Amino acid sequence: MKYLLLLCISYYYLSANAHVFVYHRFGDDRHQSTNTTLKELEKEFKYFKDHGYKVVPMIEIVNKLKNNKEVPDNWVAFNIDDSYKSFYNNGLPLFKKYNYPFTLFVYVEATEKNYGDFMSWEQIKEASKYGEIALHSYSHKHLTKLSTEEIYEDTKLSYKIFKEKMGFKPKGYVYPYGEYDQRVKDVIKQFDFEYIANQSSGSVNKKSDRYDINRVALVGKVNLKEKLKYKTLEASWIEPKTTPKDGVLRQIKVKVNPNIKNMKLYVSGYGWQDIKVKDGIIDLILNKKLKFSRNRVAISPDYYTISSKLLIK
């Protein structure tokens, strides 16, 4: 029994897990749902510095994945989505103060058409002296609602303009709103990206898919100790493969480590429930009506070691 317990513990925790955190706006009180105050940002930066974390460029984590190497537990990478001006005006000085690298994902149409709240190409080029610049689509639309051709053309256009303006190819891509499915992923992978990132709670370890990197959002006041507890549960989702057309989630079927006997299931709007695992298979008939346009379905043995799917109605 003691030996089996040790096996379970090693399964959950001995694989090293780095964390990728994503920000949006900085010191911009107009948009509380996506804003991080400068006081909070500096508190977070100081926490990482004082607790032995190493802030690394995103591509260093990706290179570990490409070479099937362990990603150190104390590695952290920072992403900034959308290229808002508040990053350039407010956030960038703090990144420079702490000498922390970052990856800025550009919403190309907003910059190309000079939307007032977004960075110019000149500002993006200046920011590139301190971090990586990558791609966040052209039109920032909900990709799961577009046709395959529309997704391809949006990505092609953004890639072309980015290369012309920046003088190099983008290495990374982030889905607008963190929304994607297998069809969207397959289209984006046709381009010459070294990685694609989502916005699902979890971590990054040597088994992570570099075309599906988990990122944890840091917005408002954050308990970093809690965020750093997130780990990625190794799991193979059999059902659901796609969002049910009638909006009813009928079945959950997932393959996990056979040593796991008990699990927790989360469905947006329904909360957590305890479930059983038999011979490494979760197989439940649910028949739950999805309540929102964005629905998260997740499994976890402990609320923190997570595998999840995003279902977009």
Give a quick rundown of the structure.
With 313 residues, this protein is of the alpha/beta class. Helix content is 29%, strand content 27%.
Characterise the protein shown here.
- The protein is an alpha/beta fold.
- It is 29% helix and 27% strand.
- It is built from 9 helices and 18 strands.
- The strands form 5 sheets. Strands 1, 4, 5, 6, 7 and 10 form a 6-stranded parallel beta sheet that branches. Strands 11-18-17-14-15 form a 5-stranded mixed beta sheet, with no helix packed on it. It has a 3-stranded antiparallel beta sheet with strand order 12-13-16, with no helix packed on it.
- α2 runs parallel beside α4 and α7 packs parallel to α8.
- The longest helix has 19 residues.
- The chain is globular and about 55 Å long.
- The termini are far apart.
- The N terminus is likely disordered.
Radius of gyration: 20 Å
Mean pLDDT: 93
- Give the biggest sheet: 6 strands, parallel
Low-confidence stretches at least 5 residues in length (pLDDT < 50)? Answer: 1-14
What's the total number of strands?
Answer: 18
* Subunit organisation of the chains: single chain
Instruction: Give the overall form.
Output: globular
Binned, the helix content reads 25-40%
The fraction of residues in strands falls at: 25-35%
Secondary structure class reads: alpha/beta
User: What is the string of SSEs from the N terminus onward?
Assistant: HEEEHEHEHEHHEHEHEEHEEEEEEEE
| Number of helical regions | 9
Distance between the termini: 45 Å
